[in-house]
Design goal:
Layout (H helix, E strand, L loop, with lengths): L9 E8 H6 L17 E8 L4 E7 L5 H5 L3 E2 L9 H11 L3 E6 L3 E8 L4 E8 L1
Antiparallel strand pairs: 1-2, 2-3, 3-7, 4-5, 5-6, 6-7
Length: 127
């Protein structure tokens, strides 16, 4: 018999490129959707395995901005599962970021995108 006791809290991982994130099964496990640009790099994820919430950031080549944004919808101001993110959104939007969302059959992502620098902060939770 095997018994695991304890709390995972959160796990943080870094991937230098999207290819490395794919090799680490980040997309397969649903922590990021496949719509993020192929040029994504410096991908950092912090996944709370207990409550299935992920947050992180990445950068991408500016030439991929329109293709990425075309997969997203403008943020609908839906309630966020982590209240601290509301204040993050306010700060980021004051600093030139735009807020978008993406949903699939299982999850919701909020992407906060700076179109001038190619920097993205994100949060994901299960529906």
């Amino acid at each position: 018999m095997f018994l695991v006791i304890g709390c995972y809290d959160s796990v943080t991982n870094y991937y230098a490129t999207r290819d490395k994130a794919e090799a680490g099964k980040l997309f397969e496990r649903g922590w990021l959707p496949s719509i993020i640009p192929l040029s994504a790099m410096d991908i950092t994820t912090t996944n709370d395995l207990d409550i299935n919430i992920s947050e992180g950031e990445f950068k991408f080549d500016l030439k991929d901005t329109n293709a990425f944004i075309n997969n997203l919808m403008l943020y609908s101001n839906q309630k966020l599962p982590v209240s601290s993110w509301q204040s993050k959104l306010l700060v980021l939007t004051k600093n030139g970021y735009e807020v978008f969302e993406f949903t699939n059959s299982q999850s919701v992502w909020i992407f906060v995108v700076n179109k001038n620098t190619g920097h993205v902060r994100y949060m994901m939770w299960l529906k």
